[in-house]
Amino acid sequence: MDGYAVYIMSNQAETLYVGVTNDLERRVWEHKTKKIPGFTQRYNLTKLVYFEQTPSVEAAIAREKELKGWRRDRKLDVIRSVNINMKDLSATWYDE
Fold it and tell me: pLDDT grade, residue 1 (50/70/90)?
């Protein structure tokens, strides 16, 4: 995937984390394998439930800030608009 991505990770309890990256596949792997200490590691956020590609880092950061400013129910609405059951969109990306 080229460019930048804004993404949302989740877990069984549907805790949400919004992030931005220039390498979505690598960043999701870091979340799944808990390589980086912090919120996603502590809450076991290993499911990629939403992402958007953007052409520039500025657009990605602006969209990340927008999503982070939304209430939880609005974030869930945008996720479910493309991923109704909140399945892990990266489930087939890696050989485990």
Answer: low
Taking the C-alpha atoms of residue 51 and residue 73, their distance in angstroms, rounded to an integer, is: 17
Using the structure block, give the residue that is written with the tokens 């500025």: 58
The fourth-level CATH superfamily of domain 4-80 is GIY-YIG endonuclease (3.40.1440.10)
Contact call for residues 46 and 2 (beta carbons, < 8 A): no
Residue pair 54/5 in contact by the 8 Å Cβ criterion? yes
Q: In terms of Cα–Cα distance, which of 31, 84, 28 is closest to 51?
A: 28
Q: Cα 32 to the chain's mean position, in Å?
A: 11
**pTM for the complete prediction?**
0.94
CA 20 to chain centroid: 8
Task: Please identify which residue in the block is written with the tokens 């990256």.
Answer: 21
